[in-house]
Design goal:
This protein is mostly beta strands. It has one helix at 59-68, and strands at residues 7-13, 18-22, 26-40, 46-58, 74-87, 93-106, 117-121, 127-131. A 5-stranded mixed β-barrel has the order 1-3-4-6-5. The protein is globular, with a radius of gyration of 17 Å.
Length: 152
């Protein structure tokens, strides 16, 4: 039986993407993404819980991230989990789980004449773009205090 490795996140970029180029001039972008969940306790207090994820984008998506994403940007990311392992300078075994992004939608508030643009890794080294219909607009800033609780 085949497995499924799929991750869908909506969150805020924690710092400007770090762009590096590996052998063959292939761009790789890496940045932290914060997802915050709000819940109400029995006492009526609203509690927010923020989870941090490391996102890695390759090729065309990395170029787009470098050009358009910045600390605080609201994004929708689809991708897969990947865990890397290595040995540090002290010979201690380390590992890190990352989200390898395969699709990116920028959700920052749009200007009057612009729509959301959906970018996905087409597998040939470039990012394909297509307009996203308005029924995919997410009402993240609904005034419920979610954005005020983000750590940036």
């Amino acid at each position: 039986m085949r497995g499924v490795n799929k991750v869908v996140l909506i969150g805020n970029v924690g710092r400007d993407p770090d762009i590096q180029y590996i052998e063959g001039d292939i761009p790789v972008a890496k940045f932290p993404l914060a997802t915050t969940e709000m819940r109400k306790e029995r006492t009526g207090n609203v509690v927010s819980e923020t989870e941090w994820h490391t996102v890695v984008l390759w090729r065309g998506l990395a170029d787009l991230a470098g050009k358009y994403l910045h600390k605080g940007s609201l994004v929708y990311i689809e991708g897969r989990l990947r865990t890397r392992s290595w040995e540090d300078k002290d010979k201690v075994r380390r590992s890190q789980t990352e989200i390898v992004g395969e699709s990116l939608i920028m959700l920052d508030k749009k200007k009057e004449h612009e729509g959301h643009i959906h970018y996905s890794d087409s597998g040939n080294g470039s990012a394909a773009q297509k307009p996203v219909t308005d029924d995919l607009n997410f009402d993240i800033g609904s005034g419920d205090g979610v954005n005020e609780s983000l750590p940036f």
